[in-house]
Design brief:
about 100 residues, alpha+beta, about 20% strand, three-stranded antiparallel β-sheet, globular, 3 strands
Length: about 100
């Protein structure tokens, strides 16, 4: 794999991680009056201050059939930013019970 191909793969994986569970899942959540974990975190932090850590980390859950779902959309999110100007850290994790919905 060339350097350019590696960079393109990294960009693809980052874009996939940004989407969360995908547009269909996001639409279902919105129809139920819910926001995605990323949307909730971005509302919590001061605008533009949130920095996600390990965005490309995949889960290692073996229960609930999750071992067959190895992708970036089903993972935890960890990061830091500012809330009312104060440095704050946050963690959000997708529940394995909500994945099939």
């Amino acid at each position: 794999m060339t350097r350019e191909q590696k960079i393109e793969e990294l960009r693809r994986r980052q874009a996939e991680a940004e989407v969360g569970g995908g547009e269909e899942r996001r639409a279902r959540q919105h129809a139920d009056g819910k926001l995605s974990a990323r949307e909730r975190i971005l509302l919590l932090f001061d605008e533009g201050s949130f920095e996600e850590i390990d965005k490309l980390v995949e889960h290692d859950c073996q229960e609930f059939g999750m071992d067959e779902q190895r992708n970036l959309r089903r993972r935890s999110g960890i990061g830091y930013g500012r809330i009312n100007g104060r440095l704050t850290y946050a963690f959000a994790q997708t529940s394995p019970y909500s994945e099939g919905r």
